Amino acid sequence: QKEVEQDPGPLSVPEGAIVSLNCTYSNSAFQYFMWYRQYSRKGPELLMYTYSSGNKEDGRFTAQVDKSSKYISLFIRDSQPSDSATYLCAMSSPRSGNTPLVFGKGTRLSVIA
Amino acid sequence: EPEVTQTPSHQVTQMGQEVILRCVPISNHLYFYWYRQILGQKVEFLVSFYNNEISEKSEIFDDQFSVERPDGSNFTLKIRSTKLEDSAMYFCASRRLAGETQYFGPGTRLLVL
Question: What does the pLDDT read at residue B71?
């Protein structure tokens, strides 16, 4: 079983739609959860960062973590064409100060005007 | 806003040649990382570095790879004898403290011919 699974898409939605992106994971030691946005041939850009379970909201973006189900989500409200990118989930465990991130494969999103 | 920078943005090399990829992490960050992303695949961890030594490395990071922080600002990844399969996007990342998230540079696209 892969450590982090993410549906690669592509996902195509009309402008203004609510987008739901998800990842599942198998390692119960993961405590830190992140969503990055990656435009084509660019570096990952941090969108959201959460610790343990719960919700976090930032503007049009909401991140949810359900540790009991080993499931994390990113919701984008009022999606815009500029949101078209690949969204990567990433997570790490707190076993030491320098733990690497484990990434999902990324979901490619297209928001159509 | 401070950011991680990487040079060069693109590098083309012949198989068997040595390459050095350079990164300038965010200035008050203490933890440094290299990741790579083969086209169409996940971002994969290579190595982490803290307090002037390697903290952790993946199975990808074999004897052909090395990292160095030659001064107070640069962080380099050297590949001694490149192989075709080293062709990928290489990302540098840094973070300030344990438990905080990592910030990525724009990447170096390496093509080995």
Answer: 86
